[in-house]
Amino acid sequence: MGNYRKKNGGLINRLIMGKEKSEGYARASLPSNRWELFWDIFKGRFGKLVTINLLMLVFFIPLFLLLFVRYVSLANYGAIYPFNQPFGMGFQAMENMTGYSENIIFTVNSITLLFLPIVAIIAAIGVAGGAYVIRNMVWTEGIFVSNDFWRGIKQNVKQIIIIALLYSLVFYLTTITTSFADWILAINQSKKWLFIISQVISYLFLAIFTIMAFHMITMCVTYDLKIAQLIRNSFLFTIGLLPQNVFFLVLGAIPFLLLLFGTFFVAMGVILILLFGFSMLLLIWTDFCQWSYDKFINDKVPGAQKNRGIYEKIKESDSGALKQYREQMALAGRSSLSSKPIKPITDEELTIAELPVSFNRNDIEKLNQSKRAIYEDHERYVEEHKNDPEFQQTEEEKQMEKEQEERRKRIEKAKKELSKRKDK
């Protein structure tokens, strides 16, 4: 009956856990570079990525509402201005409407984006938690999404709020500057090149600061740095790795970029953003940043670990050598206890009697009898299995034990000679 249960348990275990793989195969299946690490996390922890994304979305709701208010304001201004009224039904025709639409955009941006710092602070709270959890995932640490999310908020929210305020200020000034330039270009044809250059410079500055902001967020949850250090280091990484920065940001922002195309792509983009848009962007960016930090920073930081989450690739054919090495290490630490048969623990055979709350001498006797029964059963197991091959010393073990004994004798002899010299 015991053998049947053991086989049945093995079958269930194989059905649940899958076919047992060799150590070399299991080692070879671990991520050995950043690309493999990304796919390993995306496939293996997809549910957690969705949960992280939903938690972050809660804090981005005020930002979405602000964008919606801006859209509605633009639509309302467009409805009440003369160029959108039915001509010939009591409305006077405007002789020149040049610059009206640009003026509307400039006015709406100037008013609605004044609230951007407020919603940016709220969004920064979610970013602090999400970036921290994603960092732990890239480091392949065990995570509890809710606990780690709030721990990340507690540890990083102050600095990330400052980063969000700086970015909202830069975004506001850039948007107002470019909107004003569009308005002037529409109503004034002279010196157009000056305003075009100002727009180009504004957009370039916003793009560079956007990359810097992402770097500052990742550095904030990775290292203990002050704001001035974050700005300086993020600027160096932005300029030094500009092509890579652009590539990985665009790659992570694909769900958001879909919103710029037709209706079908907008619907797809919205679904992806709600599902894993923010968490995937942070995952791709954090994975890339950890590679860059390993390459340029971690060697100079005391105690910093390189290649966290990355494992050296070992072929399945190398598993024999790995097994031999581990056997040798096991021999070196082998003790008398490990060479003695020990009966496996089971819950279906002998048990220790439990004492009731109110017990008497008979209950104590039952407890002692159950202990003796377990001890005697174990001794029988040892006697039955003491000659099993796995409990016999190999030639290597005998040789190693002999060498250890000789070394011990030499040490004792040297101690005695040293003691005699001191006595003289």
Mean pLDDT: 81
> Given the structure, what is the number of helices?
15
Helix content: over 70%
Largest sheet: none
Q: What number of domains?
A: 2
Distance between the termini: 72 Å
Order of helices and strands: HHHHHHHHHHHHHHH
Summarize the structure.
By secondary structure, this protein is mostly helical.
Description:
This protein is an all-alpha fold. The chain folds into two domains: 34-82 and 100-300, no CATH class; 329-423, no CATH class. Helix content is 73%, strand content 0%. The chain contains 15 helices and no strands. The longest helix has 43 residues, at 145-187. The termini are far apart.
Question: What are the salient characteristics of this protein?
Answer:
424 residues, mainly alpha, 2 domains, 15 helices, elongated
SSE topology sketch:
Elements: H1 2-17, H2 23-28, H3 34-44, H4 46-80, H5 100-112, H6 116-138, H7 145-187, H8 192-222, H9 227-240, H10 242-252, H11 254-257, H12 263-296, H13 319-332, H14 361-385, H15 395-423
Helix pairs in contact: 3-12, 4-5, 4-6, 4-12, 5-7, 6-7, 6-8, 6-12, 7-8, 8-9, 10-12
